[in-house]
Automatic annotation (TrEMBL):
<dbReference type="GO" id="GO:0051082">
    <property type="term" value="F:unfolded protein binding"/>
</dbReference>
<keyword id="KW-0256">Endoplasmic reticulum</keyword>
<protein>
    <submittedName>
        <fullName>CLGN</fullName>
    </submittedName>
</protein>
<feature type="compositionally biased region" description="Basic and acidic residues">
    <location>
        <begin position="78"/>
        <end position="97"/>
    </location>
</feature>
<comment type="similarity">
    <text>Belongs to the calreticulin family.</text>
</comment>
<dbReference type="GO" id="GO:0006457">
    <property type="term" value="P:protein folding"/>
</dbReference>
<dbReference type="GO" id="GO:0005789">
    <property type="term" value="C:endoplasmic reticulum membrane"/>
</dbReference>
<dbReference type="InterPro" id="IPR001580">
    <property type="entry name" value="Calret/calnex"/>
</dbReference>
<feature type="region of interest" description="Disordered">
    <location>
        <begin position="68"/>
        <end position="107"/>
    </location>
</feature>
<dbReference type="GO" id="GO:0005509">
    <property type="term" value="F:calcium ion binding"/>
</dbReference>
<keyword id="KW-0143">Chaperone</keyword>
<dbReference type="Pfam" id="PF00262">
    <property type="entry name" value="Calreticulin"/>
</dbReference>
<dbReference type="GO" id="GO:0036503">
    <property type="term" value="P:ERAD pathway"/>
</dbReference>
<dbReference type="InterPro" id="IPR009033">
    <property type="entry name" value="Calreticulin/calnexin_P_dom_sf"/>
</dbReference>
Length: 107
């Protein structure tokens, strides 16, 4: 997980927790304060309004929105725009295209 805002922590691992199929919260399970910190601490991120708080030794070091401030997003868009995508030059815009080889069946 990466944050859009720089963080004072190294690697951060998180797991999703579900309650009856519904997202109940996020738990950051492991992170180090910095590269020299050998101790692994536990951090909690648990807000039903899709916001998070990262705590190191019970001190909030970052907070934000899981939907806006996390890369990649926790809830990605259903469609991702591709700026290089384009229609072929011979694309037919008609809603219905008749099949010249089709024959109507006899009654």
């Amino acid at each position: 997980i990466k944050y859009k805002t720089p963080q004072p922590v190294g690697e951060v691992y998180f797991t999703e927790t579900f309650d009856s199929g519904r997202l109940a919260g996020w738990v950051l399970s492991k992170a180090k304060k910095d590269d020299t910190d050998a101790e692994i601490s536990i951090y909690d991120v648990m807000n039903p309004d899709d916001t998070f708080e990262v705590l190191i030794d019970q001190i909030v070091v970052n907070k934000g929105s899981l939907l806006e401030d996390v890369v990649p997003p926790i809830n990605p868009p259903k469609e991702i725009e591709d700026p290089s995508d384009k229609k072929p030059d011979d694309w037919d815009e008609r809603a219905k295209i008749p099949d010249a080889s089709a024959v109507k069946p006899e009654d």
